Amino acid sequence: MSVLQKIRNHGVLLLIIVGVAMMAFVLGDFLNSGSTFLNRNREYVGVIEGDKIHFTDFETLRERITEVYKIESGRSDFDEATQISIRSQAWQIMLTDKILSQQAKKIGMMVTANELSDYCFGSHVHALIQQRRVFMDQNGNFNRANVVQFVNSLDMTPDDETQAENLQQAQTYWLYWEKMVWLSVLQEKYANLLSTMYVLNNVELKYEVEGREVSRDARYVIKPYYAIADSLVSVDNSEIKKLYKERKQLYKQRPHRALEYVVFPITPSPDDHDNAKKYFESLLDEFKTADDVSYLVNSNSDIRYEDINYSESTVPAQYKDFAFNKNAKKGQVSEVTFENNVYSIAKLVDAGYSKSDSVHLKILAEGDQPENDLGWFTERTLTPELVDSAFNHPKNYVFHATNVATGKQQKVQIVEKSAPTPKVKLAILARTVYPSSTTYSLIYNTAKQFAVEAANDNTFSEAAKERELIVYPAYNVQKIQEKIGDLDGSRAIVRWAFEAKKANVVSDVFECGDQYVVANLVDINEDEYRPIGDVRYELQQVLLNKKKAEYLKQQLGQFSTLEEVGNRFDEEIYTAESVTLGSQRFGNSGLEPAVVGVTMTLEENQLSEPIEGNMGLFVVQAGPKKGSVGEINYAQEAQRLTPPIAYSFVYQALNYLNEQAEIEDNRSNFQ
Q: What residue numbers bound the domain in which 82 lies?
């Protein structure tokens, strides 16, 4: 009982100070079967390595992650980008759990109960546990004793319904993180096993040391491919088809759609501006003359009145000079401003006084309740009920605060207060100009008319051009894609595109945030590989460059000096400095690994044969090598070089498991 109470001390603190119940969410085992409220063929969000993932299981996990986000951020509302991230995270957790568990089972790898206990609250506490705020001390440092105390409290017998609810919340919270630690440790074990499979031999080690210790400068001539006219060489279809076949695996793709769309911004009309201005002006006389404007502001303003004390650092920036100039006094009113579609005016409700910016509070020991240092708080981090007690009394003053979780009273003492600084109380009357329902209708009708005309004439681009609308492209739209471009709430457009049976179809009007959108389905692609037509130009350029290289070799003929090469090509001689085996870039010519490799194999002053580079044909003359390898300590070099390379190998191996796994992703059916 005392253990859970100590946990509550931290929670209480936040409940009293912030007024938010941090631990209120339900969490059970990861994969629970749910009710079959959907059609049987649409109730599974996916199939991972033969295991069906029910929609309710996915949704439960998504909700749990959302609750964790709420706890960690202290927020309850999330924008669309965060919600997309949460859904993606839920899917990735399920993928990792299923795929990794099956791989571990095949090789007999596991995380035992004793190991899990050690990682959760033993001598090797995992970072996931250490990072939880509930397990930190008053200085923000992790305290293992808090974890042990927390875990021990999970077996207590509650005295009443409130305690039973709190206990259930604590149990489910712990089960979530225990599961996450288990999954993380299993992945770390598997990664460590894979890393031991990568061993650098002495030849590789010598290459790595040479790449680090030995360098040279090199003089070179490059004849760029772009300097040779395409008409001097030719590429036929058979060559393109052959190269496409050789590279086909590089062009693997998922089913996708190509779209184009136009937007109709939903912005206030002139009438909306006039009406908002008239309404705002009708409030000004009362705002300027009334002694108490709180009701007027809270009934009509977009910014509610808060009875708090602003300092120069906390007052809204646009009113800093008005509120804190040397002549500022109670009752003064600012000029009316209009910025970003907002009419606003401010009034000094109070001025000419000083108060502390922050207070240091602690809960006093009482009965079995230990003392608990709460730290420093500003007015905005306290509930309104506590501001008066905490800020309007002197140091050492003691007041009572109610624990909203238990209903019990606790004594809170003011330990310290910051030095008083000038303060004001400010009321702001602000009215934003919003589009009216009439404006919405007019803009919608305009978008609807465009959609009908574009669909009937089958000339989307022409219809947009006539109305001077910008046509935005959206290529490679995936079925699971959450949004298109920067369009808020555009998932419905993606769904429409994949439900369409043919291309060149114009959509109805979609409302995406503060704009209407009409889209045109340009292309439907269900092929496993990108068609040759899509990559034809790329393949043609590769073949053209190769043939240009052969053409240049013939034009160059035999040569004995670099100056001779420069004269024949009519190109300058350049210098690439400090070239090493580990270099990717060659001088100012960009990424040229083949040229680098040849350069480091040449003898001093030796001329290379013509080298086919990425950007052109090179001839290189190597300078003397600088530095030397000396005697290599292979064991030491292996110890230094293996970990980063092994890490890359592990990363690639884990990605390979995901790529090769049999995954049926049906999330789009539920979005």
A: 2-195+664-670
* d(C-alpha 412, C-alpha 643), whole Å: 53
pLDDT tens for each residue of 323-358 = 999 899 999 999 999 999 999 999 999 999 999 988
In a domain, 484, yes or no: yes
460 in the same domain as 410: no
Which parts of 212-285 are beta strand (E)? 215-224, 256-265
Q: Which DSSP state fits 371?
A: -
- With CA atoms as reference, report the closest residue to 472 among 671, 258, 299, 632: 258
Last residue of a domain, one of 399, 432, 465: 432
Within-domain flag for 538: yes
Coil, strand or helix at 498: helix
Domain end among 476, 506, 525 = 525
Task: Take residue 99 and report the two structure tokens written for it.
Answer: 């795929």
**Alpha-carbon distances of 532 from 19, 244, 247, 430, rounded to whole Å:** 61, 7, 11, 59
Helix (DSSP H) and strand (DSSP E) numbers for the chain: 20, 18
The three-point CA angle 191-195-200 to 5° equals: 165
Residues 152 and 286 in one domain: no
How far is it, in rounded angstroms, from Cα 409 to Cα 399? 10
Interatomic CA distance for residues 268 and 254, integer angstroms:
41
Residue whose token pair is 């890359």:
648
pLDDT over threshold 90, residue 479:
no
* Whether 346 and 463 share a structural domain: no
**Polymer length of the chain:** 671
More confident residue, 661 or 622: 622
pLDDT at residue 27 above 70?
no
Residue where the block lists tokens 């996916």 = 46
Side chain identity, residue 353 = Y
Residue 13: pLDDT over 50: no
List CB contacts of 172: < 8 A, sequence separation 6 or more: 25, 26, 27, 28
